[in-house]
Write a structure and sequence with these properties.
The protein has about 400 residues and is α+β, with helices and mostly antiparallel strands. Helix content is about 30%, strand content about 25%. The protein folds into two domains: about 5-175, Thermophilic metalloprotease (M29) (Thermophilic metalloprotease-like, 3-Layer(aba) Sandwich), CATH 3.40.1830.10; about 205-230 and about 245-405, no CATH class. The protein has helices at about 5-15, 35-45, 60-70, 80-90, 110-125, 125-135, 145-155, 160-175, 180-205, 295-305, 335-340, 365-370; strands at about 25-30, 50-55, 95-100, 140, 205-210, 215-220, 230, 235, 240, 250, 260-265, 270, 275, 280-285, 285-290, 315-320, 345-350, 375-380, 390-395, 400-405, 405. The structure holds zinc ion (2 copies).
Length: about 400
């Protein structure tokens, strides 16, 4: 057994989800990752889990369902599954998701079926996902290779070599080298991200202006009391967790109705099992008013149709072009990695923790504070080698935040 795999399971449970004694864990994993899932379950019990509940998924079966299930299925969501999420999230609960998918699992599936199904699911799980967005419980996403994904990234390698190459790449991003000190490295890393947040928070920014060589020219305001977050989150019980591993970003929320200009994506986006490439959004008063893409346009348009808030933004994240994941020069076709190699923006819901005084506020109150609400939260990559982001502070000073793709403070 590779020592690195045990170390990976350990940091996923103890740093990512940061499972505490007596917690119930919901572990979601693809069936192809069963071996890693078993290691996670063992580690969770070693850490004091009360119970681990499995949620298995499978790309091939999802595809078969989309192609062949009765049409009315796509407008409904099983009540028992909603009850499961709602009940679990009321108790001492952590969620750990093993994210591994064929980036093109649903290629060619009717985009309208995908839209209906995603909307039915998200609508049924809105209370639960509001709790997740507000860090009412700890949650984390990690990834391990599966063959379809590895072959998409390394099509010229044999099956075994592609899997090995993806494992090596992931271990590197996770700061796991077999020396057993990944936990310490992660503590240092999250502290460095927090330092960046402190610098940004001290500026008290009012507005950001993005410019890239791909044509992004976008101005956006930050809401009153905006907070930059990064590294570890804190759940409502005050326990640290890391929502995405790896993570290289610091992020905040935009003022919902404030963005203007053009945003050009810098990497392809894997959206609901379909590749969307060459995204260009035209934005007026915070709203996406024009959508262009070189491929996957229909899936993107359907996603934006889910609700009104899908056309507004919920996250502004800064990532150095010169960062460990970016320097691998790999396209992962997986947002967990690609968003951590590039400045990104999300359309859809904002994280309440990104603004002061959000705790305990209703969705309506959060919207009044300037935060967007939606069933969606979709990150897409905008950062490039030449990205320039300047900020305007509340007292009218201009500050260079990112220069030539990198953090400049
Ligand atoms: Zn982000
Ligand atoms: Zn995001």
């Amino acid at each position: 057994m590779d020592k690195r795999l045990e170390e990976y399971a350990r940091i996923a449970v103890r740093m990512g989800a940061n499972l505490q004694e007596g917690d119930t864990m919901l572990l979601r994993a693809p069936v192809d990752c069963a071996e890693f899932a078993r290691m996670i379950v063992k580690e969770a019990y070693d850490a004091g889990a009360k119970e681990v509940i499995m949620g298995w998924r499978d790309d091939t079966i999802s595809r078969l369902n989309y192609l062949h299930a009765a049409d009315e299925v796509f407008d409904s969501f099983h009540e028992w599954e909603k009850v499961q999420y709602d009940t679990l999230s009321k108790g001492k609960f952590v969620l750990l998701t093993i994210d591994a998918e064929d980036p093109e699992a649903l290629k060619g599936v009717d985009p309208e079926r995908i839209r209906r199904s995603v909307k039915a699911r998200m609508t049924a799980l809105k209370d639960y996902s509001d709790k997740l967005m507000a860090s009412e419980f700890s949650w984390s996403i990690v990834a391990v290779p599966i063959l379809s994904w590895a072959k998409k990234m390394f099509p010229d390698l044999s099956d075994d070599a592609a899997m090995d190459a993806l494992w090596e790449a992931i271990y590197e991003t996770m700061r796991i080298d077999g020396s057993g000190d990944a936990v310490e490295k992660w503590k240092l890393h999250t502290a460095r991200l927090q330092e960046k947040c402190d610098k940004l928070n001290a500026l008290d920014l009012k507005q950001l202006h993005y410019k890239t060589e791909l044509g992004t020219d976008f101005t956006v305001d930050l809401p009153e009391g905006a907070i930059w977050c990064g590294g570890a989150d804190k759940n409502k019980q005050g326990i640290d967790f890391i929502a995405n591993m790896p993570t290289e970003e610091v992020f905040t929320a935009p003022q919902r109705d404030s963005g203007n200009g053009v945003i050009a994506a810098s990497k392809p986006l894997c959206l609901n099992g379909t590749m969307v490439e060459g995204i260009r959004f035209t934005v007026e008063n915070g709203k996406i008013v024009k959508v262009e893409a070189d491929c996957g346009l229909e899936v993107l348009e359907k996603t934006l149709e889910v609700d009104e808030g899908s056309r507004y933004f919920g996250e502004l994240a800064l990532v150095d072009y010169d960062s460990p994941i970016s320097n691998q020069n790999l396209l992962y076709y997986n947002t967990l990695f690609d968003e951590n190699a590039s400045c990104h923006i999300a359309f859809g819901a904002a994280y309440p923790d990104c603004v002061k005084g959000a705790e305990g506020k209703s969705t309506e109150e959060l919207m009044e504070m300037g935060l967007n609400d939606s069933l969606n939260h979709v990150d897409f990559m905008v950062g490039t080698e030449k990205t320039e982001i300047t900020g305007i502070t509340k007292d009218g000073q201009t500050v260079v935040i990112m220069k030539d793709g990198n953090f400049a403070l």
